[in-house]
Amino acid sequence: MGDRTLEIDRVSKRFGKVTALDSVTFDVRPGELFGFVGSNGAGKTTTMRIVLGVLAADSGEVRFDGAAVTHETRTRIGYLPEERGLYPKMKVLDQLVYLAQLHGFSANEAHRGAESWIERLGLAERRGDEVQKLSLGNQQRVQLAAALVHEPDVLVLDEPFSGLDPIAVDVMSDVLREKAATGVPVVFSSHQLDLVERLCDRVGIIRSGQIVACDSVSGLTAGAASRITVLAPDAPAGWAAHLPGVRVLSENGDGTLVELAPDIDDQTVLAAALATGPVREFTRHHPSLTELFRSAVTGEAAS
């Protein structure tokens, strides 16, 4: 088998006069958890539908394992759509067995796979229930089982964590990590940026149909302005106000919070603080993914 990378290469899509995707390019590597984030309407679902072949791109190409994605490749993708697509009156086990058989599993293999995921996702007591009678969280678990039951080579998940309770979030996170550990590329969209930050190897941020950032969380934060809390008890008010490239954000009994321009060495701030007397605290803060996302989407500095 080749390198099993999923590549989205300069994919564009228009709906009438609206450009939904404008030369969207990123890749999801084998064994990687890739978070795909953006505001509503930014183009996440459209991109995923094009990967799946539900929509055709106007231009550009989707490749897996070095070759253009075909119908045969798509049967190897596990997909969890944002609008959940289960048969409401079908029982949980029957549904999963049916879906596995659709992907070419024998009846025995399909049953084995379905039972295994039912157990793994905590649905054992619900296997004979109709999907429409399940809670939304359990419907979500069945939907994940449906994406996994045919042992896919790629996972494409649209908002897999929405509507899940904290325990189900943990189960879902563990399953995604396990799949990635077997070399499967996993891409998922989510508005829960704390989860994306915790889980993902890399993150792509899409705004108005264009990728505006794509890197590891640490890579994305590296270029962001640094913030430092300095506690220098003897420092006079405004001691940091005139330092070049330094912006004072707040000053109180807990210390002075400053923001440094990217090219400013924090040691100049430390030296200025030490010149006033002892320094009790000197703490650097890295912006969270939520702050980065806000700055990437609005064009404002991370805050």
Describe the overall structure.
There is one protein chain. By secondary structure, the chain is of the alpha/beta class. It has 2 domains: 6-216, Rossmann fold (3-Layer(aba) Sandwich); 225-285. Helix content is 33%, strand content 27%. It contains 10 helices and 14 strands. The chain has helices spanning 44-52, 71-74, 92-102, 107-120, 136-148, 166-181, 193-199, 217-222, 266-274, 289-298, and strands spanning 6-15, 18-28, 33-37, 59-64, 67-68, 77-80, 154-158, 186-189, 202-207, 210-215, 226-231, 246-252, 255-260, 281-285. The strands form 3 sheets. Strands 6-7-8-3-9-10 form a 6-stranded mixed β-sheet, with helices on both faces. It has a 4-stranded antiparallel β-sheet with strand order 2-1-4-5, covered by helices on one side. α3 crosses α4. The chain starts with 5 loop residues before the first strand and ends in a 5-residue tail after the last helix. The model has no long low-confidence stretch (mean pLDDT 90).
Largest sheet entry: 6 strands, mixed
Strand content: 25-35%
Low-confidence stretches: none
Structural class of the helices, strands and pairings? Answer: alpha/beta
| Mean pLDDT, all residues | 90
Number of domains: 2
* Annotated CATH homologous superfamily of the largest domain: P-loop containing nucleotide triphosphate hydrolases
Q: How many E strands?
A: 14
Q: Kindly provide the radius of gyration, computed on alpha-carbon positions and rounded to a whole number of angstroms.
A: 24 Å
Domain ABC transporter: 6-233
Protein name: ATP-binding cassette domain-containing protein
Family: Belongs to the ABC transporter superfamily.
InterPro entries: AAA+_ATPase, ABC_transporter-like_ATP-bd, ABC_transporter-like_CS, DrrA1/2-like_C, P-loop_NTPase
